[in-house]
Each structure stands twice: as C-alpha cells, then as structure tokens.
Amino acid sequence: MAMKKKPVTGMKDITPREMEIRDYVIRMIKDTYGTFGFSSIETPCVEHIENLSSKQGGENEKLIFKILKRGEKLKIDTAETEMDLVDGGLRYDLTVPLSRYYANNANNLPSPFKALQMGNVWRADRPQRGRYRQFMQCDIDILGEPTILAEIELILATSTLVGKLDFENFTIRINDRRILKAMAACSGFPEESYDTVFIILDKMDKIGKEGVAEELEKEGFAKESIDKYLSLFDEVTEDINGVRRLKELLEGFLDQKIAEELETIIQSVDTVKTAKFQIVFDPTLVRGMSYYTGPIFEISIDGFGGSVGGGGRYDEMIGKFTGQKTCACGFSIGFERIVMLLLERDYQVPSNAGKKAYLIEKNMPGDKLAAIFKEAAEERKNGNIVSVNMMKKNKKFQKEQMTAEGYTEFKEFFCDGIK
Amino acid sequence: MAMKKKPVTGMKDITPREMEIRDYVIRMIKDTYGTFGFSSIETPCVEHIENLSSKQGGENEKLIFKILKRGEKLKIDTAETEMDLVDGGLRYDLTVPLSRYYANNANNLPSPFKALQMGNVWRADRPQRGRYRQFMQCDIDILGEPTILAEIELILATSTLVGKLDFENFTIRINDRRILKAMAACSGFPEESYDTVFIILDKMDKIGKEGVAEELEKEGFAKESIDKYLSLFDEVTEDINGVRRLKELLEGFLDQKIAEELETIIQSVDTVKTAKFQIVFDPTLVRGMSYYTGPIFEISIDGFGGSVGGGGRYDEMIGKFTGQKTCACGFSIGFERIVMLLLERDYQVPSNAGKKAYLIEKNMPGDKLAAIFKEAAEERKNGNIVSVNMMKKNKKFQKEQMTAEGYTEFKEFFCDGIK
C-alpha cells in the first residue's frame, strides 16, 4: 500500500535544524513577553464556520480550509452549497479566535487582559516560494486598556524580543490613523476618498513623492489638495520634532492630545531602549487593515525588505464581534520571517551543552551496558547532550555523520574496556 | 452580528493557568529529551486523506475531521460519497505523519534517527468529560536501531522526564510481545486465537486470575491449556528473577536471547534510575495495538488509575507504510493526562521571578512615564515579571485581582512622586 510521501500541497515538513531555531524563538518569545506580564492562552485550531465567515476577515475568508460535517448532519444528497456541507474551518488568523475567547471567558480574565497567543493558522493561498498554507502566528494583545500604556508596553516588549534574538539596527515606525485622516482632511480631500488616498500614500517608499502625486492626479483629486498634502510631508521630520510640527500644522483638524500621546510613546520607547534600534515617526505609514483606530506601528530589520511585524490600536473590532465594546491594541510578530532570517544567517542557538556521542561495540554484556548508561545519565544531569549508539562497521563514516549533526566528542566502548 | 462564543463541540479554550503548566511541561520535555539526543520535528496538521485512510489507524480512521476540496476540484453536484468531497484530513495521531516524514526525508536524516514530536491531533470522538477532540500528543521514536539500545534510551528518557516533573513513586511495567506469544504457545493455545487470549489476559488487573480463567473457559479453550497458562503466571515474580524463571519455563518456545535482552533492559534502567520509581516485569502486560513486535512498556503513576504513557517496538509498521522496512521503537507520553494531574495537584511551576505590578496615576507627564518604564525595564532585565498598569479608582479591588493573578509586590506612581 503506497503512501503519498510529500506533505499536502503548500505545507511543509520541518527539519530538525529548523525546529532548533523555531523552539529557540518560541522560548525567547514566551520568556520575554512573560516578563511584561503577558499570559499565554490557546484556542482550538478549528473554529465555527460562522465565526470565520463574518466578513471581519476580509480576503482571508476566501482562503478557509473548511471541515466536513460528520455523521447524520452530513447530507450529501441534498447539499447545494459548500455551507450545507461544513460546520467548521481552520482558523486563518488569531484575532477572530481571540475575540471569541474574550467573549467566552471575560468573567474570569483580569482587566486589562494581556494575552500572548502563538499558534498555527491556515490559508489556502496560491502556493509560492517561502509562503506556506500552514504557518505560525504570534500575537500579543492588551484588551481593556484605553491609554497609551498599551502601545508602549507592546512596542517595548516586541523590540526587547527582537534585540534578544541578536538582530541589530532595526527600525520601528509609528504613526496614528487619526493623524493620517487629519492630514487628508487638512489638505481638502473628501472624507469618502481617504482610503483611496491612503492606498496611494502607502506606496511612497516604492514610487517616491512624484509617483504619489502622479497617481493622486490620475484619481482626479484637486491639484491644490495634492500640493498641500505633499507639502505637509516635506515639513515633517522623522522624530519628535516632526510630531510637534505636525501638531501645529494640523491645528483644527487634529485633537492635540493625539499628537502629544504619540510624542510620549516615542519618548518612552527612546528612553528605555537597550537594543540597537530606532523608533521613528513615519507619517506615510498606513498599515492595510481598516480596523485600526489609533496608533499604528511596524517593525523592520535593516537590510531585509518588508516588515517583520506590525500592529496598532483597534478599539472597535472586538465589540463588532462580541457585542460588547472593548478597547484593544496588539502587536503581531512575523514568526516565520524571523525564523527564515535566522536560518539564512546560519544562526547558532546559544548553548552551554556539550554534544557527546557514545559508540558501543556489539554484544556488550548487560552489566557493562548498564554502567555505560549510568555514565551517560551523569553527563545528561550536568546538562550535556549524550547520544548512545551502536558502533557501526564504518566507524569513520558514522563519526563524520554525527559531526555534521553537531556532535563534538566521541567516546568508544569496547567489550573488553573503553578505548 | 452575533458570534458563537463557545468553542466548537468537544474542543476547549485554554486558560492562562493551564497554559502555564502546559508551557512548563513542554519545556521540560524538550529539555530532557534533548539531552538524550532526540531532535524535534514537525509535520503539517493536515494530511492526505489517502494516508489517513490506509487502515493502519484502526478505529481512529472513523473519527477523522475531513477537509473539503477547494476551487474547481470541488464538485458538489456529482459527489456521491464523502471521499468525492475531501482531499485532506486533520491527523489523528503522530505515527502516520512520522512514517510519511521518514519516507520523505530519510536521505537527509541520520541513522538511527531519534525523533521528538509534539503536536495536536484531532479525533471526532463522542465528547466526554476530560476528553477533547483536539489534544496534544508527545512521541519519541528511534528509527533504524534494531538493538535494545533503543528501548533503554526511550525508557530512561521518559522516566527521567516524569521524575523531573516531580512525580514520585511511579511504575514502569515491561513485557515482550514474543514472550506473550511463547506463553500462549507453551500452554497449547492455537496460534490463531492468541489475540483473543491476550484481550482476556489484559483484564487480569480488573477481574483477577479467576475472572481470566472463567472468560477463557467461556471461549471454549481446553481446560489443561488454561491451567497451564495460569500456572506460568504463578511461577513468575515481577523482577529479573521472574524473567530468568520464565526463560527456563519457556525453553523450546522462546528464543533465549529475548529473555536475556529483557533482563538487560530492566537491569540497565534499574542501575541508572535516579527518580523514585520501579521497573517491573509484567507478563500480563498486553498493550492494545497489534503492530508491536518486541518489548512493550507502560508507565503509570501510583494513586492515579490508568497509564500515563506507553510504547514498544514496532519493526514492521513503517515498512508497511513506506515500502522500505525500517525497525522502530517508540514511547508516547500522555501529555494531557500529565497536565491534568499537575493542575489537580495545584502544581506551582518553579520560578525565581518576582511578580511585580506598577500602578500609575492618571495623567502622568511623558518624561516621568518614560522613567517608570525604564525602571520596569531594569527589573525585567533581571528576570522579574513587571506589569505596568493604570491605577484604577478602586485600587483595593485592583490589587486583590492582581494578587489572585500571582502579583506579590505593588509599587504606586503618582504624578507628584512615588508612594
């Protein structure tokens, strides 16, 4: 009976080498976020199909792996649509499950609730290099904290983590959805076209200011709005002074407190940071998801295109799901990207453990074998890795193989004594 | 838009308290098995439906969560059976995926290959108290090691782990499928009825020797076979002497080497053990799965009915899957049971970290806030847990709540200075 040897399309077997990195990153995440008081939670990988199809998931709802009803509930004869056949699906993110979890358990949870979630999610995306249909997400969220304490904690926790993973020279960019809107309002764009404007603005780093101007013109926006808009960006530097300047420029369009709070976030992170990174004010930062309501942020590592994490405040979303308004702020770290970067750098997980191999000659008498295992146990107790193996005929090849696995010491045991 | 708040039937949300235990057990498993040279691997949670339906999974194959085909491949109109509708399923154990993994990656894996797998599996079982449809399995397997080094390493690794988790007075029972068969043969039972005999023998601890005799009689077995069979058990003690005696009694029916190897396994484990446990020879140990071919073992914790893990040698199974004969031996630990036991004992995870809460008065100026976060960062750097929170109006209640969460120190920050 032949078995299909490859994993299902778009998913992968994980090698021992990659697992070593993954386990290390998971441990650093749990440890680091733990010191900030985040508590781990977990939800089932399977969710009600209704919860996954509530329109909060956007495009991801088209990518759900759906689960067939079982037993008498499955009626193939009369089924007309997919929804007649299924009752569950694999989660496509951790936000829908978090909302459900919070609605289900709020009475037993502290307020504010600082949650750490790590778990696989599934999306039936077109398979492509480096992107898989099963991947790990890692989110921290603070639910029920309306003040910028949430933003500061999230950014500090994430930057501390990235620093501990030996990344240097990374950048956290921060903006606020309300500043984005005020800049558009102040320039005279009509409110209903903000999203169009932001989608174009989001390309600034790729197409430059001229490109943005061109595309805005193509959309038919007024020349003076475009000029005014772009001039605002000219006036603003990527630091606290930029925030202060914008506060003046946007007077009448922006609640002054919003700029002051953004200033405090930047200032706090700058004061505390120990890792080598910078936090910059980036008025062109948009972040795709329309559910953000306040500060938004993104983290990127210099020399690696694209972000390795992002988040922001989303005070309206959980209420839409659960019917109970709950302010919320979250930061999601790109677990798979970080693992990939560490693998590419051939990252060596810090370890004090020696890696020793015992090679045992055939037909070792029972009492001598027991003594060998006792010796191994002592070494293991001291934190060393000991692999006890039969000595192969081609011992040279065996040692080469084990050396490739990272074993650095070999001890050979013969029936008539140790060599 | 109302959301379903409960998890899907038979699956559960995991609380921060349970996660603390789970994370700790996972860490102990990775650390302990790591010192024995086991490498972690992972496979996708979704498997080809064909691989899951290959008849190796027994009853579990009836409990598969099946995944609907997607896009053009799904043809609801012409579908007649479930298999027309699905192309994947959630894995119901880690053994099928391990076989596929080994077939897919054998060229890049060392030989022998010592694998550690931890991961969720899914079974659409009838929901019942304490049993869930998603649960974690934790298996160690040694592939490609034909000698008892595999058995000894697996038993030592598992008993070391259970000892580290602060369980005392546990018991490892060991037997060998070939001894089971030799005892049946020596008593004169016909070979085709061995499985029937073993199913009855397996009840010895519940119905006693008289019960076993009765049931064997009911099945119509010869009186002298039954008498002979039960007399064998009378002769045998639960230690190495028992194995030696049985070796004599079964001469002509049992390869003497099998008994000697079993003796060496017991002797080695006994010599090495540091935790408080016993390893006993149990000739009534059967283990359900018919795929075992050699030594079998089970671990149970005194005072807790039922086993918390088990395993054995299964030299034929991987070959049936992959077409390439591969000897194999594994030990599976009952992760969910162990977590449940620790929770019931209100187990406190060992930790040196202080748990401190900072309470901050409203409207703290930005520079003072930054200084508070800097102080928190110093404490976190030293391994302490610090949660920075806004001070609530009902501060007494807030502190009570946080005390319940395990916070033992509170520091209050007011706009005009620290209290």
TrEMBL record, chains A, B:
The gene behind this protein is hisS
Give the GO molecular function terms: histidine-tRNA ligase activity
Q: Could you list this entry's UniProt keywords, alphabetically sorted.
A: ATP-binding, Ligase, Nucleotide-binding, Protein biosynthesis
Q: What is its EC number?
A: 6.1.1.21
Which superkingdom is the protein from? Bacteria
Source organism per entry reads Hominisplanchenecus faecis
Q: Which residues form the Aminoacyl-transfer RNA synthetases class-II family profile domain?
A: 1-350
Q: Which reaction does it catalyse?
A: tRNA(His) + L-histidine + ATP = L-histidyl-tRNA(His) + AMP + diphosphate + H(+)
Protein name stated in the entry? Histidine--tRNA ligase
Question: What family name appears in the similarity comment?
Answer: Belongs to the class-II aminoacyl-tRNA synthetase family.
Which InterPro entries does UniProt cross-reference here? aa-tRNA-synth_II, aa-tRNA-synth_II/BPL/LPL, His-tRNA-ligase, HisRS-like_core, HisRS/HisZ
